[in-house]
Write a structure and sequence with these properties.
Layout (H helix, E strand, L loop, with lengths): L9 E4 L2 E8 L15 E8 L2 E5 L7 H4 L6 E5 L8 H11 L3 E5 L10 H11 L4 E2 L11
Parallel strand pairs: 4-5, 5-6, 6-7
Antiparallel strand pairs: 1-2, 2-3, 3-4
């Protein structure tokens, strides 16, 4: 049974607290992909563990203002989400304990996940970037 959440909504479902964080593009050339007010990312919390899933978003003020995030999943895929430099800046702003970059398939020339890892971990030793091969079997 699905429930639609609008930006800023908070629900409690089966012991999980879910907050809809606005997800949108801020670069003018990308605003037609994900306009402000339509899409969400989510903070999911249970037992004092907070997980953030950015959705199709850039490093919005709402993302940068997050706090106490244990695990973050941050999208990086031009032209649809954010460039690597924006992802680095945004993640450093809210400083999750662990971060997984995702949504970068097919954009290897625009999305250097190794640069993301090097820069984030080099600028904040308390953040661990975990690289995962999400798309290993995508062509099979």
């Amino acid at each position: 049974k699905a429930q639609v959440m609008k930006n800023g909504d908070i629900l409690e479902i089966l012991g999980f607290n879910i907050e809809a964080i606005p997800a949108y593009n801020i670069r003018e050339e990308a605003q037609n992909y994900h306009p402000k007010g339509r899409d969400n990312g989510y903070v999911i919390e249970k037992n004092n563990t907070r997980i953030y899933i950015s959705g199709d978003s850039e490093d919005t003020p709402e993302m940068r203002a997050l706090s106490d995030i244990d695990i973050a999943f941050v999208s990086m895929n031009l032209p649809y989400t954010m460039p690597v430099e924006s992802a680095i800046s945004g993640v450093l702003a809210f400083a999750p304990r662990f971060v997984f970059p995702y949504h970068y398939r097919g954009q290897d020339e625009n999305t250097d996940i190794n640069l993301f890892k090097t820069e984030v971990e080099g600028q904040n030793l308390d953040i661990d970037v975990i690289l995962h091969d999400w798309y290993k079997n995508a062509s099979e």
